[in-house]
Amino acid sequence: FHTWLKPRFSQHQESRYLLIENTTEPLNIYSICPEYASQNTTMIEIKNSKNINIFGLKTETYYKFGEERDRFTTPLIINDSENISIYSHDGKTEATKGEGIIELNNSRNVTITNLFRWGKIYLSKPEEFYMIREKHDNKTYGLKADHLINLFKRN
């Protein structure tokens, strides 16, 4: 499904286009496309859940062409979850400096494939943020956004 809200409609810090929380039964989502949320929010969060598959994720973090921001919305956060798969991501997407387009926190058995972004036409500095930033076992890892990522796997 496609979601689009002008920033004035989603200013609350806990606002989400989609929150998947405490889900253990298999859930498959096909072709989700959240766009243009407030710069202070998260588009999608998977929290304390298992057995989630997303087949096709497209995100856009720019509301206006050429707009400068010091903070971007976070397209996807996966917290304390397991057996999560994201198959393909693309879009005009940036992240806040030092953060990730996908934030992965204390999660296991996660597979993410085919990550791509179109951000070069904007004010992008992909070396300053991550496609995936992971916090695992009290350490932080990141895969910079200046690369195409074909496969990420966390067991």
Characterization of this structure:
- It is a single chain.
- By secondary structure, this protein is mostly beta strands.
- 0% of the residues lie in helices and 51% in strands.
- It has no helices and 12 strands.
- The chain has strands at 2-4, 18-21, 27-35, 42-47, 50-58, 74-79, 82-90, 100-105, 108-115, 130-136, 139-144, 149-154.
- The chain has a 6-stranded mixed beta sheet with strand order 1-3-5-7-9-12, with no helix packed on it. Strands 2-4-6-8-10-11 form a 6-stranded mixed beta sheet, with no helix packed on it.
- The chain is globular.
- The N and C termini lie far apart (29 Å).
- The mean pLDDT is 83.
Q: Which bin fits the share of residues in helices? A: under 10%
Instruction: Write the H/E string, N to C.
Output: EEEEEEEEEEEE
Number of helices: 0
Mean pLDDT comes to: 83
Largest sheet: 6 strands, mixed
Morphology call:
globular
State the total count of DSSP E strands: 12
The main sheet orders its strands as: 1-3-5-7-9-12
Instruction: Work out the strand percent.
Output: over 45%
The gyration radius over C-alpha positions equals 14 Å
Query: Which structural class do you get from the secondary structure elements?
Result: mainly beta
The N- to C-terminal Cα distance equals 29 Å
Detail the poorly predicted runs: none
